[in-house]
Design brief:
The chain is an alpha/beta fold and 370 residues long. It has 2 domains: 1-103 and 218-369, Rossmann fold, CATH 3.40.50.300; 112-196, no CATH class. The chain is built from 13 helices and 14 strands. It has helices spanning 46-53, 84-93, 102-105, 112-135, 138-144, 151-158, 160-184, 190-194, 203-215, 233-250, 261-267, 285-290, 295-302, and strands at residues 2-15, 18-31, 35-39, 61-72, 75-78, 95-98, 221-225, 253-258, 270-275, 278-284, 345-346, 349-352, 355-357, 366-367. It has an 8-stranded mixed β-sheet, sandwiched between helices. Helix 4 packs across helix 7 (160-184). The two termini are 31 Å apart. The structure holds adenosine-5'-triphosphate (ATP) and nickel (II) ion (NI). Nickel (II) ion binds at residues 46-47, 225. Its main location: membrane. It is an enzyme of class 7 (translocase). This is Nickel import system ATP-binding protein NikD.
């Protein structure tokens, strides 16, 4: 089953320099439970594509065409047509995101444990309340057992002196849940880390906190946008292991963004290769590595450092997307470009089961450009 389906997705940024054609006709299925790796050089549209999947492209960007469907328990949500306040409920609770820079995702003036607690209270308040009721006694028990619109509950929540009978047991349960999550994240001495501030923690520890926040609400889909870029190699390996473990434990569908083919090999089940706002190839990770088809995918693989082989970089760089090349956007850098490649844009076509390629070396189907 597909949890997410994007069809013919276009994203534009309206800037002073012109209209940036950041995502140009992307079709993408995300299969429930899989890890989909998205790979490509910087500026190829990986982040923007996944923002579009959550319908949260930041201004001055806009989804100008296409649809994104999110599926949950047989219900279809057309994210591109839903009102913002409805989508906001899904984000965080269903579709969560971990960013490159953990320091930016954490508030420097609050203890990290409190920040995770807040994330839990936003999305799982009812569950925390239920747990609190199980251990509460006396007046707290009385008040927690009533419904939220009971007059006594409303009254107690408004009175500073009484409020704690309602909130203290809930906060205590939430604190326990945070400590449990932190230890799941492999954080040593979670009770102590709970009361620390972000700056007191290393980058790797901060990223573990951010992951705890993202997972605190058991999202169905987790988008990890280069979560290890700012970390050193050993910590990167640990975080990758952690993410793989948690994915298994929680059954989360994972979209993992990176420009590093080595990381892709490590985490993904399937790979989508992006170049200049297009997906140029999709396939399962094993066959992509064994037999890459698109010249860009081949180039990315040849640029992986390997013992006994010279690194071969792809000449040139990702074009400016205000004025991308006509036809196949990769043709100016492509060793195998033909004359058709500069005039027609190749469509992403399934050339064998599970393998999609946008390249005229394998088929002759083009798309009409905007
Ligand atoms: N806020 C913005 N305003 C204008 N253009 C933007 C904005 N955000 C992204 N873009 C443009 O959209 C294109 C795709 O960017 P995106 O961030 O998705 O690339 P990426 O593949 O994630 O790269 P990286 O690996 O560097 O994160 C780029 O040309 C970028 O300049
Ligand atoms: Ni990015």
């Amino acid at each position: 089953m597909n949890v997410i389906e994007a069809r013919d997705l276009y994203v534009r940024f309206y800037t002073y320099e012109g209209v940036v054609k950041a995502v140009d006709g992307v079709d993408l299925d995300v299969v429930s439970g899989e890890t989909l790796g998205i790979v490509g050089e910087t500026g190829s549209g990986k982040s923007v594509t996944t923002y579009a999947l959550m319908n949260m492209v930041p201004p001055p960007g806009k989804i100008t065409r296409g649809r994104v469907i999110y599926r949950k328990k047989g219900v279809e949500y057309v994210l591109t047509e839903m009102p913002e306040n409805e989508i906001r409920k899904l984000r965080g609770s269903e579709l969560a995101r971990i960013f490159q820079d953990p320091a930016a995702a954490l508030n420097p003036v609050y203890k990290v444990g409190e920040q995770v607690a807040e994330a839990i209270l936003i999305h799982r308040l009812d569950e925390m309340k239920k747990r609190a009721l199980e251990s509460a006694k006396g007046f707290s028990r009385n008040i927690l057992s009533r419904s939220e619109d009971d007059w006594l509950v409303k009254f107690v929540k408004r009175m500073p002196l009484l409020r704690r009978f309602y909130w203290d047991p809930i906060k205590e349960e939430t604190r326990k849940e945070v400590v449990r999550l932190l230890s799941l994240m492999g954080i040593p001495d979670p009770e102590r880390v709970y009361s620390m501030y972000p700056h007191e923690l290393s980058g790797g520890m901060q990223q573990r906190i951010v992951i705890a926040m993202a997972l605190s609400c058991n999202p169905q889909v987790l988008i990890a946008d280069e979560p290890t870029t700012n970390l050193d190699v050993t910590v990167e390996a640990q975080i990758l292991e952690l993410i793989k473990d948690l994915k298994e434990k929680f059954g989360t569908t994972l979209i993992y963004i990176t420009h590093d083919m080595g990381v892709i090999a490590e985490v993904s089940d399937r790979v989508a290769v992006m170049y200049a706002g297009n997906i140029v190839e999709i396939g399962d990770v094993y066959s992509i590595f064994k037999e890459p088809m698109h010249p860009y995918t081949k180039g990315l693989l040849e640029s992986i450092p390997m013992p006994g082989r010279p690194i071969k970089d792809i000449p040139g760089s990702v074009p400016n997307l205000v004025n991308p090349p006509q036809g196949c956007r990769f043709h100016p850098r492509c060793e195998r470009a033909m004359s058709i490649c500069s005039t027609r844009k190749p469509k992403l076509v399934q050339v064998r089961p599970g393998r999609w390629v946008a390249c005229f070396l394998y088929h002759s189907e083009g798309v009409e450009e905007e």
